[in-house]
């Protein structure tokens, strides 16, 4: 299992970070895989240049055949792009491939993989 995230803003704009279970990235518990995101170096996705990101800001989960985004009680919140206004993430919510989300001042998105099909995530 693998996922690629593209950073869409800030000093790392355009950078793609790929994590996979084969590289022992994240935590795998049965079919539930999750990655940590935040400012500390020991996160799977480290946003060290974003001082508005918390040390342990959020988690990205793969379970039940789809991605989920969880805010980890961050100081500045986690947001997803919405049609009308950006929506704050409360608890754990489903997130789609290509949907923008924000930690601190950094916008990211889950990149589609070679086998991407919108039906795969529904």
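Sequence proposed for the structure above (122 residues):
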């Amino acid at each position: 299992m693998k996922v690629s995230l593209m950073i869409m803003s800030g000093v790392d704009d355009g950078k793609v970070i790929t994590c996979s279970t084969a590289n022992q990235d994240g935590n795998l518990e049965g079919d539930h895989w999750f990655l940590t995101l935040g400012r500390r170096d020991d996160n799977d996705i480290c946003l060290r240049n974003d001082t508005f990101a918390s040390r342990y800001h959020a988690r990205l989960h793969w379970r039940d055949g789809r991605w989920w985004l969880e805010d980890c009680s961050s100081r500045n919140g986690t947001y997803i792009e919405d049609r009308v206004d950006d929506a704050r993430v409360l608890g754990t919510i489903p997130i789609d491939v290509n949907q923008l989300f924000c930690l601190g001042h950094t916008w990211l998105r889950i990149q589609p993989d070679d086998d991407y099909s919108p039906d795969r995530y529904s």
